[in-house]
């Protein structure tokens, strides 16, 4: 941390404005845990105590920066922590740590008399890495009344799908949802594709369209993974084109379309899709490095990558650019 950033904090400390100095130390970038520790020691020595608002700000800041021990300390020192304070720590831990401590923190939140909200259970669901944890989280969501919302159900369904239980557990969870959004529907489609139930994936996608739910690049990518019929694939390809998803270089969707054509034995159609995307990239003037990286992402195999470099060279020559690899 540079000295310039420390000056306002030291000035506030010299004026004995320790709460302000503590807030300032937590808002500096990059965060300095040592400086905050010193400021916090002066804060406590002067007889101050954390209020819920300051505690929440400190916990959120240190959790997001990965300093979990500091965040937990402020949580324990807070006289009346809010649910949002626990949410900040639980959500960040869910991205890195094992589920055990996260479930323990969730239990402690309820023990101190706080009520979990939708963000709490959503983070709890994200922390699950096994069938047992997901079933426990599922039960908790139902008991607290959060098991019927789309954003929680999509997480539960995705967990069941990842674990490999796309049968009754995932289907029941999806069926319990009162207002399933396109994320939950897409999770079901992906689950059926990954488990080899291709006809079921198409049925769910068809029902999604029949209900008038909004399609996005993720739902199209999901259903394309289970198509082995070129005519069906062409229909989805047409939907993607009409909705403008291919104009923004959606790498996942473009890959799914090319893979679908290759899987159906239509390599010519796959190459045509690749050419169209490459032409758009060149037309928009992507620089050499950006172009190569995009082609690398688009090409699932060396054949497509080599083809892309060759076609880029050819198009560059036609457009009057130098014919060197570094000028691609």
From TrEMBL:
<dbReference type="InterPro" id="IPR002885">
    <property type="entry name" value="PPR_rpt"/>
</dbReference>
<dbReference type="InterPro" id="IPR011990">
    <property type="entry name" value="TPR-like_helical_dom_sf"/>
</dbReference>
<feature type="repeat" description="PPR">
    <location>
        <begin position="181"/>
        <end position="215"/>
    </location>
</feature>
<keyword id="KW-0677">Repeat</keyword>
<dbReference type="Pfam" id="PF13041">
    <property type="entry name" value="PPR_2"/>
</dbReference>
<protein>
    <recommendedName>
        <fullName>Pentacotripeptide-repeat region of PRORP domain-containing protein</fullName>
    </recommendedName>
</protein>
<dbReference type="GO" id="GO:0003723">
    <property type="term" value="F:RNA binding"/>
</dbReference>
<dbReference type="InterPro" id="IPR046960">
    <property type="entry name" value="PPR_At4g14850-like_plant"/>
</dbReference>
<dbReference type="Pfam" id="PF01535">
    <property type="entry name" value="PPR"/>
</dbReference>
<dbReference type="GO" id="GO:0009451">
    <property type="term" value="P:RNA modification"/>
</dbReference>
């Amino acid at each position: 941390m540079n000295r310039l950033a420390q000056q306002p904090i030291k000035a506030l400390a010299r004026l004995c404005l320790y709460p302000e100095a503590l807030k300032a130390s937590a808002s500096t970038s990059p965060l300095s845990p040592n400086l905050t520790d010193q400021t916090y020691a002066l804060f406590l020595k002067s007889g101050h105590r954390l209020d819920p608002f300051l505690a929440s700000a400190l916990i959120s800041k240190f959790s997001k920066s990965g300093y979990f021990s500091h965040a937990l300390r402020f949580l324990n020192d807070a006289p009346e922590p809010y649910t949002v304070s626990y949410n900040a720590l639980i959500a960040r831990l869910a991205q890195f740590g094992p589920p055990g401590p996260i479930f323990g923190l969730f239990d402690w939140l309820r023990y101190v008399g706080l009520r979990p909200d939708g963000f709490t259970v959503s983070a709890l669901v994200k922390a699950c890495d096994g069938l047992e944890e997901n079933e426990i989280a599922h039960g908790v969501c139902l008991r607290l009344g959060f098991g019927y919302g789309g954003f929680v159900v999509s997480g539960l369904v995705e967990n069941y799908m990842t674990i490999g239980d796309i049968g009754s557990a995932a289907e029941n969870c999806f069926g319990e949802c009162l207002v399933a959004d396109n994320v939950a529907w897409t999770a079901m489609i992906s689950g059926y594709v990954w488990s080899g139930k291709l006809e079921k994936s198409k049925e769910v996608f068809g029902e999604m369209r029949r209900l008038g739910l909004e399609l996005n690049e993720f739902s199209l990518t999901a259903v394309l993974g289970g198509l082995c019929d070129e005519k069906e694939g062409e229909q989805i390809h047409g939907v993607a084109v009409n909705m403008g998803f291919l104009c923004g270089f959606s790498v996942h969707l473009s890959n799914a379309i090319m893979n679908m054509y290759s899987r159906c034995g239509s390599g010519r159609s796959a190459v045509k899709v690749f050419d169209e995307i490459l032409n758009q990239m060149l037309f928009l003037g992507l620089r050499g490095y950006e172009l190569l990286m995009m082609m690398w992402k688009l090409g699932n195999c060396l054949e497509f990558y080599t083809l892309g470099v060759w076609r880029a060279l050819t198009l560059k020559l036609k457009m009057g650019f130098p014919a060197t690899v570094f000028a691609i």
